[in-house]
Amino acid sequence: MPETTWQKSSYSGSADNNCLELAASDTTLALRESDTPTAVLHTHRPQLTALLRHIKTTTPRR
């Protein structure tokens, strides 16, 4: 099994260990927080795209 290559968010500082990391395979995307690397969320590109679009376009409730 190939080793997973995690990519750190560009918004995270180099010294900060609390960031979002993403790994991609041919079929899925995996997301995790660097401070909890064993908790991994697996999803597919269309679902993650829809979630991010929703977050960007929805006004937060107060």
Portion in strands = 25-35%
Tell how many strands the DSSP assignment holds: 4
Order of helices and strands: EEEEH
- How far the N terminus sits from the C terminus, by CA atoms, comes to 46 Å
Overall outline: globular
Biggest pleated sheet: 4 strands, antiparallel
Structural class, from helix and strand content? Answer: alpha+beta
Order of strands, main sheet, comes to: 1-2-3-4
Helix count from the secondary structure assignment: 1
Poorly predicted sequence stretches spanning 5 or more consecutive residues: none
How much helical structure, as a percent, in the residues? 10-25%
Radius of gyration in whole Å, from Cα?
A: 13 Å
The average pLDDT value, as a whole number, equals 85
Task: Name some characteristics of this structure.
62 residues; 4 strands; single chain; four-stranded antiparallel β-sheet; alpha+beta
List the helices and strands and how they pair.
Blueprint: E1 7-8, E2 20-24, E3 29-33, E4 36-43, H1 45-57
Antiparallel strand pairs: 1-2, 2-3, 3-4
Q: Could you write a compact summary of the structure shown?
A:
With 62 residues, this protein is of the alpha+beta class.
Please, could you describe this protein's structure?
This protein is an alpha+beta fold and 62 residues long. Helices cover 21% and strands 32% of the residues. The protein has one helix and four strands. The protein has one helix spanning 45-57, and strands at residues 7-8, 20-24, 29-33, 36-43. Strands 1-2-3-4 form a four-stranded antiparallel β-sheet. β2 and β3 (29-33) form a beta hairpin. The longest helix is centred in the last third of the chain and has 13 residues, at 45-57. The N and C termini lie far apart (46 Å). The model has no long low-confidence stretch (mean pLDDT 85).
